[in-house]
Every structure is written in C-alpha cells, then in structure tokens.
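Hi R.,

As promised on Friday, here is the backbone we talked about, encoded as structure tokens. Could you run it through your design pipeline when you get a chance and send me back a sequence?
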C-alpha cells in the first residue's frame, strides 16, 4: 500500500511501498507536479522496478521543462537499490536526510 500526498513546502511525501500495484496511482499523482520537486521518501519502505520506472518517467518530464525530481530521506536499503541500478546518477539524492 502507498500513500502519496503534498507535504510541507511543496514536497511530495510517499509512505509505504511503491510497487507494480501502486505504480499507476503514483504516476497519476506525479504527472501533476511541476518545477523542481522534492520527494520525501522517509516513509518509503520498498520500491520495485515498476516504481523506479515511475520516478524515471517523472524525472524525464520535469527535466524537459527545466525542473527536476530530488529524492530525500531514502532509507539505506533503498539507497542501495538506487546505487546498484545506477539511478543515483539520474537523480539528485539528499543523503543527509
């Protein structure tokens, strides 16, 4: 299960699991964001390849409009997923969170 909503300061907050079952609803939400967006992943416990695809599609769209998707609060095991997949090179990741 995934909860996704706007948080403080325009950040997008994700809580739960971003997997194939939740990818479509997450994409629908992220399709509405504009500019530079911080995705607060503090409450994100799991991401699948489908979830990575959602973030990649959003990043490509935002970069095309001079924005970007920043990731903050990734748990160590999720940071590992981004590192091993090379996605840490595609996103600005705030490692201090």
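Update: got your reply. Pasting your designed sequence below so it's all in one thread:
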């Amino acid at each position: 299960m995934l909860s996704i909503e706007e948080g403080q300061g325009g950040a997008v907050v994700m809580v739960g699991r971003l997997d194939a079952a939740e990818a479509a609803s997450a994409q629908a939400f992220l399709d509405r964001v504009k500019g530079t967006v911080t995705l607060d992943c503090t409450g994100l416990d799991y991401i699948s390849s489908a979830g990575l695809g959602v973030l990649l599609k959003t990043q490509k769209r935002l970069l095309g409009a001079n924005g970007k998707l920043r990731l903050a609060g990734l748990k160590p095991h999720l940071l590992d997923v981004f590192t091993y997949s090379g996605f840490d090179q595609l996103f600005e990741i705030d490692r201090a969170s």
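One thing I noticed while checking it: Strands lie at 2-6, 12-18, 36-47, 68-72, 92-94.

Thanks again,
M.
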